[in-house]
Amino acid sequence: MGPACWTSTASAARLLAEVSDITRFPDRGHFASWNGTAPIDASSGDVVRHRLSRLGNRQINHVLHVMAVVQLRNPGPGRDYYDKKKADGKSSMEAMRCLKRRLSDVVYRTMLDDSIRTVVADDSNNPATGPGGQRGNDSESSATGSQPHTSSSDKSLPGPADDESRTLLATPA
User: Fold this and answer.
1) Within a domain: residue 28?
2) From which residue to which does the signal peptide run (predicted)?
3) Which residue has the higher pLDDT, 50 or 81?
4) CA distance 124 to 121
5) Residues linked to residue 9 through DSSP beta bridges, in sequence order
6) Which residues make Cβ contacts (< 8 Å) with residue 77, sequence separation at least 6?
7) Residues 22, 112: contact at Cβ < 8 Å?
8) Coil, strand, or helix at residue 169?
9) How do residues 57-90 score in pLDDT, each as one tens digit?
10) pLDDT band with cut points at 50, 70 and 90 for residue 126
């Protein structure tokens, strides 16, 4: 595995670790605001322009920036989108901001679709996965733990209820 492969693997791991549960974001706009790719109005007088927020999750913003730079190195949809924005009169920085937002939307949609597939697979009692959803684990699930002497009263209680709105997943047909 070379450095390029490590970077993409590390970036994917960072996304999964930092985002955790994608359904905690009601829509892609909330996700973009959280990761700092939502545009902020920076207009003055008759000049209308936007800039990226300096707030938000900087680690994810960095991952999206690296993704954008890689997209610009090679011909493809990302480079085409950037070139189109430049042709529309955007500066290089503005076109990069647009590309990062587009990538944020792609990441959100991909993670949400994956979350939906996971829910559908879990609901169908897929025999290829174990009780925790991992492949190859066919052991019986135990609410009291893996140790025979552990009772349910030895388990920590769940934290406070989370009132944050969450994206509803599609129910399996």
Assistant:
1) yes
2) none
3) 81
4) 5
5) none
6) 71
7) yes
8) coil
9) 888 999 999 999 999 998 999 999 999 999 999 9
10) low
144 in a structural domain: no
User: In this predicted model, what pLDDT tens digit does every residue of 111-124 receive, in sequence order?
Assistant: 999 888 877 776 65
Which amino acid is present at 122?
Answer: D
107 part of a folded domain: yes
Q: What amino acid occupies position 133?
A: G
User: pTM of whole model > 0.90?
Assistant: no
CB of 31 closer than 8 Å to CB of 25: yes
Closest CA to 112 of 49, 171, 34, 168: 168
Structure tokens at 48: 């209308």
**What's the domain range around 19?**
14-114
**Cα distance between residue 97 and residue 92, in whole Å:** 9
Count up the domains in the chain and report the number.
1
- Measure the CA–CA gap between 97 and 91, rounded to whole angstroms: 10
- Two tokens, residue 91: 């500066």
